[in-house]
Amino acid sequence: MNIDIEKLIENIDLDMLTPEIEPDRQYYYIKKCHEYVKQLSQKLGRPLKANVTTFGCQMNTRDSEKLLGILEEIGYEQTESEEADFVIFNTCTVRENANNRLYGRLGRISNSKKINPHMIIALCGCMMQEEKAVEKIKKSYRFVDIIFGTHNIYKLAELISDKLDSKSMIIDIWKDTDKIVEELPVERKYTFKSGVNIMFGCNNFCSYCIVPYVRGRERSRNPKAIVMEIEKLVKDGVVEIMLLGQNVNSYGRTLEDKTTFAQLLIEIEKIEGLERIRFMTPHPKDLSNELIEVMKNSKKICRHMHLPIQSGSSAILKKMNRIYDKEHYLALVDKIKAAMPDISITTDIIVGFPGETEEDFLETLDVVRKVKYDSAFTYIYSKRTGTPAASMEDQISPEVINERFNRLLKEVKSISSKTAGKDVGKIVKALVEDVNEHNPSLMTGRMGNNILVHFPGDSSLIGKIVDVKLDQSKGFYYIGVLCGEL
Ligand code: SAH
Ligand code: SF4
Ligand code: F3S
């Protein structure tokens, strides 16, 4: 936890009027909730526990770290168990099954609340930005205490305080915001790597996608605030950062002093002590030559590009409103590979978009074969109410989609298995992240190209960048041996 923020909270006087200005207002509520947690904890004779469950993408993962930062400052201890005093689900709604998973979990948790009546249950995140979902929760899951959305997660302490003063469900959902509140507590999952938001929202409106509706309009953070945050993280021991945005290539367009993503990278590269820079997601429609150049000349930007294609058919891409076609995408990949021959390229693909014909699907397979992705996330098209694609004719039958999906999976696997293992014998740099889940004598490190390597070692190496010789390929990962620390 950031000591400066802790001091600021300590200095707050609860007898004064509630501050109007952020983040002071939240510091006030954090302190107020802290009093409640302290008293209840004394009464129960044990510390109070909080459980945060995250669905969805890295944006949500980062948001959850902010939620946890606030909860810990309030006085809750983090627990992995849902049998907690405060439980929050940070939801995702990008595909139908994300929603169903939440309902399943809520069904289970209602019993815990009966046993532990002071338990507070909160829901936030993308799914809560959908009116229909909130209506359903209000009707069928009345034991939920707090609901808020994606734009006001910084208000968690205030909402908890409201709940403590009220018997009814607290609902606070904003349609959109132009506000970015800085300087709130964050509790990072890893000590040595961190996500960093560089922008919020999305303006692209791909026709299948719900994100622009639930995350609002695109807003970029000020480059100075980003650099300052990373400098602080580095001081705290972080060596790798992942810059986060729905389309990082349009970073800076909403700023008064226009800055490009490539220019931001140049500034971040200068930060001393920072070793590795990653980013996601770049949209192929506006990936600039400037960015390729900056990557090529950089010593810190990892040789990995996650470049979602979605479909290989230009006709489908047009209906998806992706603003690029197959030829543009393939030319872009050629350009990237020519500049950085050792780069690893990964992608996202949707199967069964409305109107997708067998020919369209074959175009997707063709791109997969041509690009030779190191790996690909493959998704079955999911109809999201409110998006243009949901009302398109020619929705594809589940049988056809499943058959195509299996063919795609086979192709992706067969191609990545051919390229897997190409680095056997090489010495590479890996950031040691964890003790191996299945074999505690092995450590797990991540190479620059995002591929994992397991090697004998001990937990004192966690957070360090080490040289590892790749001995053996196991398909999606390597087995190696430590050569010596950097
Ligand atoms: N901003 C990123 C993607 C964020 S969503 C980008 O543009 O690349 C992550 C992935 O979910 C998308 O790349 C897409 O492949 C998938 N996705 C989004 N909406 C979907 C839907 N309705 N059905 C199936 N997959 C979807
Ligand atoms: Fe969704 Fe497209 Fe925005 Fe990505 S760029 S979040 S796929 S609308
Ligand atoms: Fe899901 Fe929201 Fe991310 S809908 S994929 S958590 S932006």
Automatic annotation (TrEMBL):
Quaternary structure, per UniProt, is: Monomer.
Q: Which cofactor does it need?
A: [4Fe-4S] cluster
Its name, as the record gives it, is tRNA-2-methylthio-N(6)-dimethylallyladenosine synthase
Q: What gene is this protein a product of? A: miaB
Tell me the lineage of the source organism.
Bacteria, Bacillati, Bacillota, Clostridia, Lachnospirales
Function field: Catalyzes the methylthiolation of N6-(dimethylallyl)adenosine (i(6)A), leading to the formation of 2-methylthio-N6-(dimethylallyl)adenosine (ms(2)i(6)A) at position 37 in tRNAs that read codons beginning with uridine.
- The EC number of this protein is 2.8.4.3
Q: Where is the TRAM domain?
A: 421-484
Q: Which cellular compartments is it found in?
A: Cytoplasm
